[in-house]
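hey so u asked for the seq, here:
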Amino acid sequence: MKTLYDVQQLLEKYGILVHVGKRIWDIELMALELDNINRAGIIDPHDYMVAKLILRKEHRVEELKEKERQKYAKKDSK
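ran it, structure tokens below
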């Protein structure tokens, strides 16, 4: 497992489909669902940890993209 798509495929194995419409919201919801199946004890601990790391990285990337968008929006409004 290396990508966000891989995490989506993992969740799909448990019957969880996530598509909220905004990528960062999808990532946040996937993290919550992952926590839920981990609490239920039905996911392999290694898969859980790898998926959480991928989601954390992707969330950070989306936050940085949003900061860049805001930065350029401020420049354009001047």
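The mean pLDDT is 94. The radius of gyration is 15 Å.
lmk if thats what u needed
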